[in-house]
């Protein structure tokens, strides 16, 4: 039989391929379209089942089974040519081994009836950066039914029972409510440990010998995607954190993960998004821009960096190195340079000079005289506040550092020792007041700098603030 498939192109391959509806998404859909039989003679261990024939049963599909199939085709005179060639094939990202696709029985949640509501809910959310909306929208728009079952040895079980003879599934409101009560008393382990008669609802207890529990677990994304229901909403006598949540914060990969699963469950249950704002951060990559991986040996241990350069330096580097939301290729040399030139040099220099000047000219106390700002303080407050308000950490740090450098320049040009009484211009008393004005200006500048550095450099900001309070 020769059938058509729109995934076959003239750009690559022969244009004529075998179709196995039991072993691939495209083939499966083609099989449904043309009514082809579904055969998947491979078990959970990746070995041929009895359906493959006595000769091949038990063989490793990717090992001796593959060799045996080639031998059988050759013996039957059905093999025209055998040739090894390079082509794209999906590999498991963790084990680095080829993936075997199988058509298996699964549980699905349809999103068709509330897809449009999800698209409307997306418009109500503040996506930061705005490109996040462009990422999640087409994912929801083209979303197929959600496969919510997994075959794992751990996880939250799907509370379904199967009839031993017919395979009929028992999943009713009554059965679910009963299992819910059992889990509330015994935890989810009760599903695996208690007699099935204790798990079945009252209507089926006398038929316990005819039923068995389902072994499938719930997709973990359904678990985490329902977290708003257990965390943000009010339960019993507890206090709610607030629903929808003010913000969901995660990496850019979660538009197809937690952000999406949370949106689907919340809209399906309540018709609204579970969050008001979604803030997406980038990832720390290795120096060459590759994802860090234990298998590649390119992981940078943050604890080692903290021990070397302090928490403040590390936080400062991450905030200053790249705009929020972008990936950061970690470069220890750049971290050292920022630590020395920006934090230690510019900021440390300002603290040292301001402290010395204040102690020398003001004897620990600065009179309540009008300061002459060393930079536009009000502008810094407005612009830094706006930057932090949109999580523009790099912009905020840049503004503060500019203020620090301007203040250092101000000290150099208008330092108290440059202010001298000159005949016809000012008396010594007037010069002393002028000197103190300079000191107070610097201390006020330090206080503003400390305030806006605190979210990034908390320890350093605390030191600066304490110096300012001690001398004002």
Describe the structure.
The protein is mainly alpha-helical and about 475 residues long. Among the domains are: about 110-150 and about 220-280, no CATH class; about 160-215, Orthogonal Bundle (Arc Repressor Mutant, subunit A); about 335-470, Isoleucyl-tRNA Synthetase, Domain 1, CATH 1.10.730.10. It contains 16 helices and twelve strands. The protein has helices at about 25-35, 65-75, 115-125, 130-140, 175-185, 190-195, 195-200, 220-225, 225-230, 260-270, 300-320, 330-360, 375-390, 395-415, 430-455, 460-470, and strands spanning about 110, 125-130, 145, 150, 160-165, 170, 210-215, 215-220, 245-250, 275-280, 285, 330. The strands form five sheets. Strands 2-10-9 form a three-stranded parallel β-sheet. Strands 6-5-7 form a three-stranded antiparallel β-sheet, with no helix packed on it. The protein is elongated. The termini are far apart.
Q: How many whole angstroms does the radius of gyration measure? A: 33 Å
Shape: elongated
At the fourth level of CATH, the homologous superfamily of the domain at 335-471 is Isoleucyl-tRNA Synthetase, Domain 1
Distance between the termini: 91 Å
The residue ranges in which pLDDT falls below 50 over 5 or more consecutive positions are 364-371
User: What topology, given as strand order, has the largest sheet?
Assistant: 2-10-9
For the secondary structure, the number of strands is 12
The main β sheet shows up as: 3 strands, parallel
Please write the string of helix (H) and strand (E) elements: HHEHEHEEEEHHHEEHHEHEEHEHHHHH
Q: Provide the CATH top-level class of the domain at 335-471.
A: Mainly Alpha
CATH architecture of the domain at 335-471: Orthogonal Bundle
């Amino acid at each position: 039989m020769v059938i058509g498939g729109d995934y076959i192109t003239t750009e690559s391959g022969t244009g004529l391929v075998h179709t196995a509806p039991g072993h691939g998404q495209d083939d499966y859909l083609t099989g449904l379209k043309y009514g082809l039989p579904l055969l998947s003679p491979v078990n959970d261990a990746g070995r041929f089942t009895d359906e493959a024939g006595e000769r091949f049963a038990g063989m490793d599909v990717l090992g001796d089974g593959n060799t045996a199939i080639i031998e059988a085709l050759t013996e039957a005179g059905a093999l025209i040519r055998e040739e090894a060639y390079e082509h794209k094939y999906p590999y498991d990202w963790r084990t680095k081994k080829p993936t075997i696709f199988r058509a298996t029985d699964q549980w699905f949640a349809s999103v068709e009836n509330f897809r449009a509501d999800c698209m409307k809910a997306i418009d109500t959310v503040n996506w930061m950066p705005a490109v996040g909306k462009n990422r999640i929208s087409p994912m929801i728009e083209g979303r197929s039914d959600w496969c919510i079952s997994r075959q794992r040895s751990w996880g939250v079980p799907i509370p379904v029972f199967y009839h031993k003879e017919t395979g009929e599934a028992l999943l009713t409101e009554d059965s679910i409510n009963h299992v819910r009560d059992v889990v509330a008393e015994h935890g989810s382990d009760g599903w695996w440990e208690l007699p099935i008669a204790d798990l079945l609802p009252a209507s089926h207890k006398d038929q316990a010998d005819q039923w068995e529990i389902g072994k499938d677990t719930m997709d973990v994304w359904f678990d985490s995607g329902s977290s708003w229901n257990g965390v943000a909403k009010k339960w019993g006598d507890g206090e709610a954190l607030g629903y929808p949540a003010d913000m969901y914060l995660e990496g850019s990969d979660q538009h197809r993960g937690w952000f999406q699963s949370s949106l689907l469950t919340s809209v399906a249950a309540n018709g609204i998004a579970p969050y008001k704002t979604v803030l997406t951060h980038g990832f720390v990559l290795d120096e060459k821009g590759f994802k860090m991986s234990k298998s590649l040996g390119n992981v940078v241990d943050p604890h080692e960096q903290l021990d070397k350069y302090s928490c403040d330096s590390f936080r400062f580097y991450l905030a200053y190195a790249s705009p929020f939301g972008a990936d950061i290729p970690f470069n220890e040399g750049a971290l050292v340079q920022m630590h020395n030139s920006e934090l230690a040099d510019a900021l440390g220099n300002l603290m040292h000079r301001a402290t010395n000047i204040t102690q020398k000219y003001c004897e620990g106390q600065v009179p309540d005289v009008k300061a002459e700002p060393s930079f536009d303080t009000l502008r810094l407050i407005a612009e830094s506040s706006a930057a932090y308000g949109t999580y523009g950490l790099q912009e905020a740090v840049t503004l503060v550092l500019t203020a620090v450098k301007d203040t250092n320049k101000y000290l150099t040009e208008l330092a108290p020792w440059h202010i001298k009484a000159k005949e016809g211009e000012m008396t010594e008393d007037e010069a002393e007041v002028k000197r103190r004005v300079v000191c107070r200006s610097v201390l006020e500048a330090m206080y503003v700098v400390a305030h806006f550095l605190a979210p990034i450099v908390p320890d350093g900001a605390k030191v600066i603030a304490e110096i300012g309070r001690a001398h004002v």
